[in-house]
């Protein structure tokens, strides 16, 4: 039965808790397209304050929040720099080009190990009939980089690079809450480094829907227009915003529990030579390049035993811990994986 499965595919599979459902059921609502939903307004003000910015805008998805933000900082026809595994160019279906007319160029995929000097060397100025660079985007934590956390010192250097070249710096902060808990960096300290951020409520924090674009009041006024153009204007969406507010109040610090569960899984699979990187947060990447099983075969065998994992490539799989997976389920998942990997 589906309810018996241990689902480690993603932290997006969580279901609202009883307390979150109660908050949703009792939320005060209004028409948000008219700017009249008080719960949405409260959520936007709360998130903006957390990151030390003037304003925020609620969006229905992380992809939309990212793409709104990119349109705020890169004019059509100009260039965004990011890494080759970045969510904004890997999992958002070409939206930067399709919706924003944005040209993108990437540095080699290195996850959280970004070299600011490499990024600086890629910047193209105006003139010479080349596409001018307008912004740099980074991902915190890095999804395909195994949940890696970009060090604060690296982000400060990237801010210097952006300032030296007159560029904007965007953070795809879908899991920035995990970075905050893992490294203890205040959210406002992260916020101070970026012109725009997107932050997600429906991954580790367990809300059913929602992300926010964070930035200056001027940028967010423009973002509201872009959101409507992209079909993201919503009506009595305070029901969903209430879930986000509940998540912020109750589910941030508990992310440390997910990190500990991921560490236990990493320790279990480490003897089999498939651990792709040091596990810092809630993502455990598996590199099966030298293993007899490929990723689809491992996933299929695991499913037969009641365990769901993600396949990211022919030889790459992923485990993600989250609030709906118990300690006992982690133990059972570890036992299943070690049985399959030693076979």
From TrEMBL:
SUPFAM superfamilies linked: PLP-dependent transferases (SSF53383)
UniProt keyword annotations, A-Z: Pyridoxal phosphate
Signal peptide from the UniProt entry: none
Domain called Aromatic amino acid beta-eliminating lyase/threonine aldolase: residue spans: 7-287
Cofactor(s) listed in the protein's UniProt record: pyridoxal 5'-phosphate
Any Pfam family the entry gives: Beta_elim_lyase
Record-stated family: Belongs to the threonine aldolase family.
Name of the protein described by the UniProt record: GntG family PLP-dependent aldolase
Organism of origin: Micromonospora halotolerans
């Amino acid at each position: 039965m589906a309810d018996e499965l241990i689902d480690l595919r993603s932290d997006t599979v969580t279901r609202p808790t009883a307390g979150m459902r109660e908050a949703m059921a009792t939320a005060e609502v209004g028409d948000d397209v008219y700017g009249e939903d008080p719960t949405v307004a409260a959520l936007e003000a709360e998130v903006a304050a957390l990151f030390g910015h003037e304003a925020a805008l609620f969006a229905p998805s992380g992809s939309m929040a990212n793409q709104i933000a990119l349109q705020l900082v890169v004019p059509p026809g100009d260039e965004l720099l990011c890494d080759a595994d970045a969510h904004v160019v890997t999992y958002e279906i070409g939206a930067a080009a399709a919706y924003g007319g944005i040209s993108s160029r990437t540095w080699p995929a290195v996850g959280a190990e970004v070299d600011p000097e490499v990024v600086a060397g890629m910047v193209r100025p105006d003139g010479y009939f080349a596409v001018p660079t307008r912004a740099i985007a980074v991902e915190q934590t890095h999804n395909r980089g195994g949940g890696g956390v970009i060090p604060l010192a690296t982000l400060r250097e990237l801010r210097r690079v952006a300032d030296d070249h007159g560029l904007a710096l965007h953070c795809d902060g879908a899991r920035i809450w995990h970075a905050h808990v893992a490294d203890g960096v205040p959210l406002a300290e992260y916020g101070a480094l970026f012109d725009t951020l997107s932050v997600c409520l429906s991954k580790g924090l367990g809300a059913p829907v929602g992300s926010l674009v964070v930035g200056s009041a001027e940028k967010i006024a423009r973002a509201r227009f872009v959101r409507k153009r992209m079909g993201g204007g919503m009506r009595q969406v305070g029901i969903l915003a209430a879930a986000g507010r509940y998540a912020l109040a109750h589910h941030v610090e508990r992310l440390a529990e997910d990190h500990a569960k991921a560490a236990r899984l990493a320790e279990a699979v480490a003897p089999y030579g498939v651990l792709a990187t040091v596990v810092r947060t809630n993502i455990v990447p598996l590199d099966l390049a030298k293993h007899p099983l490929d990723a689809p075969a491992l996933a299929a065998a695991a499913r037969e035993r009641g365990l769901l994992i993600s396949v990211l490539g022919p030889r790459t799989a992923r485990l993600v811990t989250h609030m709906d997976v118990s300690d006992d389920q982690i133990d059972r998942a570890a036992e299943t994986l070690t049985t399959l990997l030693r076979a």
